[in-house]
Amino acid sequence: MQPATGSKAQDANLIAMRLLEARRFGEARELLEDRLRTDGQDVSLWLNYAVTLRVLGDATGALGALEGALRVDPRCFLALLMRASIFDQLGDARQAGQAYGVALSQYRPETVKDEPTRRAVARAQQVHDAYQREMEATLRGALASTADGSKELRRVNQLIDQMMGRRKIYHQQPTHYHLPGLPAIEFFDREEFSWLPLLESATRDIQREMAAVMADRSLDSAFEPYIHYPDWMPLDQWRPLNNSKDWSVFHLLEKGRPVPGNADRCPRTMEILAQMPQPSVPNRSPAGMFSVLKPRTRIPPHTGVANTRLVVHLPLLVPTGCGFRVGNETREWKVGEAWVFDDTIEHEAWNDSDETRVVLIFDIWHPRLTEAEKQAYAQMMVAIDAFGGSGGETGI
Fold it and tell me: Which of 262, 285, 333, 374 would bridge with 318, disulfide CB 3.0–4.6 Å?
């Protein structure tokens, strides 16, 4: 039984409890029904009424009482849990599994103190897990006859993973500019980019130029901290890396222009970058750099500036223990194998090894943009900069 809130409701609740202890179930039901005619907004009375009806063996009536509680508070965890447990008691496994899932969505462990409710929660998780497994097996079985390869059904399989709670739904969350209508794709299919083989075929040449740059101690100052905010700004997750060379970059193209002294040392890399579909936005893009991540360093989850561009990684020096996540998908870099991703979807990187990791990074126009949109967007960025409203962002 649940304690009620108002004084009259509390009195009714206490009397009903005594009646139930005396096994005078019918009188308890009549008392609660009478009180609910005037206190129909009291959730606890509805819960206690449901308990009483359940004791009397009136499962249908108990479900109706719980609906009364949920009309007052649709997210009432105890009402949702009891409702599911009645389906469970009736042997309706699927309806119980689904209802338990709804109840668990409102479960807050810190609010549950009593052991009976904890046991009920454990039962809820057990039944809901079985329901999920049965549903997944049914859905996978339905897919088995529709197509042969996993690639054709990748997105449908991802939908099932989302339904099972194994895959989170990530959205584009650019820090500054969001162009509506562009799809939120974590890693893009290689087939969309005919120039990827050209880029990858130049890996050894780019590696040689990168190695020469890193071996030249006179260029140490040319490797700049990737994160360099004033210390008076809110640094949040960036505090450990702010102004730190644990994550540094050697800029080749910055704010739309070759970097003097840097670009000259990497002519083959610059030649390849010139053949990539990079954005042309005055004072912003194209951008290209060697990204250097020191041993035992992690780049925290973050999102990029604008969804009008995608980011390309070409791994050049990758020890074991490095990884990269965009949204739900985690990958390991492989030297010479590039990928294209949307950096406005939450992503993070790590180097858990004892060696340095180096990746060539550059941006490209989002392939779904029209030429008119590219031109208009570039003009808009020029206007923002002229107005003085850049807000300190980098890239496009």
Answer: 333
For residue 320, give the 3-state DSSP assignment: coil
Dist. CA 126–CA 124, nearest whole Å: 5
- Torsion angles phi and psi, residue 293, rounded to 5: -115, 120
Look at residue 392 in the predicted model and tell me its pLDDT: 46
Helix/strand/coil for 124: helix
Q: Distance between CA atoms of 111 and 219, rounded to whole angstroms?
A: 58
255 token code pair: 């704010």
- Token readout for 224 is 């700049």
Both tokens of residue 281? 């936005």
CA–CA separation, 157 vs 144, rounded Å?
A: 11
pLDDT at 394 > cutoff 60: no
Runs of H (alpha helix) within the chain: 7-21, 25-36, 43-55, 59-72, 77-89, 93-104, 115-144, 154-163, 196-201, 203-215, 267-273, 371-387
Buried b (16+ CB within 10 A) or exposed e, 228-248: ebeeeeeeeebeebeebebbb
Sheet of strand 347-351: strand arrangement: 297-302, 347-351, 322-326, 329-331
Reduced to 3 states (helix: H, G, I; strand: E, B; else coil), residue 237 is helix
What percent of the chain has a predicted confidence (pLDDT) above 70?
Answer: 94
pLDDT for the residue 22 = 86
pTM here? Answer: 0.76
Whether residue 286 is preceded by a cis peptide bond, meaning omega within 30 degrees of 0, is: yes
What would the mean pLDDT of 183-211 be, rounded to a whole number?
96
Return mean pLDDT, the chain: 90
